[in-house]
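User: Okay, second chain of the day. Same drill as before: sequence in, structure tokens out.
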Amino acid sequence: MALSTNDYLQQLRGLLPPGPAWPRDADSLLTKLLTAIAEEFARVDNRIDDLIDEADPRTTLEMLADWERLCGLPDTCTGPLVGLQARRDAVVARLTMLGGQSAAFYKALAASIGYDIEVTEETVHTCLSDCMAPVNGQPWRFVWNVTVAQADTPRILTCMDECTTPLQVWGDELLECVINRVKPAHTLVRFIYL
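Assistant: Same drill. Structure tokens below.
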């Protein structure tokens, strides 16, 4: 809690030596000078209290842009963030996110943005592999699959569509961006939409 101008004035008056050369009455020139100094001390003290709020991303206001820059926000995954609370929440989420490399981590991450996924890993084909297993070479050990159940159905072309219009569009930029941003750098994610 910051001290007020009056608190600082009392402290400054207390530092004065005793005697008639140092008047303490309210209308003296010395008291007016000490009041001006006390106002500045109180202003600086209040700004220090404000800095405590700015040091916490949940309560920041003036330094929110600096927090966002530190966290790399907004990014392609979040897009533009609208509103003070949404911006604060994005910063806090980025700072407090616990990473992981398990399938459960990626499923929970996808669920946090509204997707239900399954994670499977590719295996390298060996002489002990099943005869029906895909013949995958060594590079496939760095590939894992994210299977997303989509509710979209193929749309029917009409005579009004262009010939380059696809029957169905697969993919979800948000999900792919979020997963690719936190995946291990040496791996490749293959997204499969059902």
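The longest strand covers residues 143-148.

User: Thanks, on to the next one.
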